[in-house]
Design brief:
- With 173 residues, the chain is of the alpha/beta class.
- The chain is built from 6 helices and 5 strands.
- A 5-stranded mixed sheet has the order 2-1-3-4-5, with helices on both faces.
- Helix 1 runs parallel beside helix 6.
- The relative contact order is 0.18.
Length: 173
């Protein structure tokens, strides 16, 4: 994604969060905080961006985000269930309305070191109402290109989740 397109996506996300009075947060692994850095690159981000956790190490995923150790062992740190658990943990830890997570293989890795090929990235999302999901990406390029693409895709997913956020209305008694 070009810089001007990334900037446009960020502007749309900021406007959507502000219009809906929502705060967003992040939990990142392979992008190392690039998503949070991108979100906070605009003046006024403190009005809609709540915070981010860089959980590069599995121990940080487990301790700060509450990702179950058995989930990491069973599914691997680069997986849809872990991406969703990271996003749920970010909602809890940061107290935000919507959270996005990124976990993946940005590479390069020696052959056979990971069950997932370089360029495999999972974006997770969760909201304060307990809903969650994930998207698997197969990205191409260098390590930095994969990270940039993951950030761009995460911004698009964040915008979609914020625009789809509808609090469950309470039923009259």
């Amino acid at each position: 994604m070009r810089t001007d397109t990334l900037s446009e996506a960020l502007l749309k996300l900021a406007e959507a969060c502000l219009a809906r009075h929502l705060r967003i947060g992040t939990a990142e692994s392979c992008t190392g905080g690039s998503l949070a850095a991108t979100m906070t690159s605009r003046s006024g981000a403190s009005n809609w961006f709540h915070g981010g956790i860089v959980s590069y190490a599995v121990a940080v995923k487990e301790k700060l985000l509450g990702v179950p150790a058995d989930l990491v062992q069973t599914c691997g740190p680069v997986s849809a269930p872990v991406a969703e658990a990271m996003a749920r943990g970010a909602v809890r830890a940061l107290g935000c309305d919507v959270a996005l997570s990124v976990t993946g293989q940005a590479g390069p890795l020696p052959d056979g070191l990971s069950p997932e090929p370089v360029g495999t990235v999972y974006l997770g999302w969760a909201d304060r109402l307990g809903r969650a999901g994930s998207v698997r990406l197969s990205l191409q390029g260098s390590r930095s290109e994969i990270c940039r693409q993951a950030v761009a895709e995460a911004l698009a997913l964040a915008l979609a989740r914020v625009c789809a956020f509808e609090p469950v209305s309470s039923q009259p008694s």
